[in-house]
Specification:
Number of helices: 8
Structural class: mainly alpha
Order of helices and strands: HHHHHHHH
Helix content: over 70%
Amino acid sequence: MKKLWAGTLLLLALSIPLLAQGQRLSAEDQQRFDSYYSRWIEYRQTNNRDQMSSMETRMQEIYTRYGIPSDTPYARVASGGEHARDRDRDYDRDRDRDRDRDRDRDRDRDQWRGRLSRGDQDRFDSYYSRWVRYRQGNNREQVESMEKRMWELYDRNQIPHNVPFAAIASQGDRR
């Protein structure tokens, strides 16, 4: 009798994690998980470790909420497994991407703000405001002239060329 009781307890103890894995996510959480999973795959393919980590954190939060063991492969929980990446028109994904893009843009701006001396900043702001006007008027020659002057200030102040002009401008139209 003791062996039967011990065997039953052992079987019960081993089945609890399986029951937790078998628990279905709510429709909303499943959609959210699929969105995180598809982005995680994309970030993995481009080796974007920061974004991969962000998606892993979000998926692990869902694992915790549903009692899913943290070592469960993500593909096992995603509906459609490896094909879940095709669901990239998900509202949550778009909203998260917009929020991430805005955060990154603000961080880039803050990183370079104040980098120029007062004189260089005044010159840059002058070039930038004229550059905006010339672009609106489609004056190619003057646009190129202002860009050349702003690039010279970038080079003198060791600012990478992939930083948008608006991140350096201290006033005016920030595009």
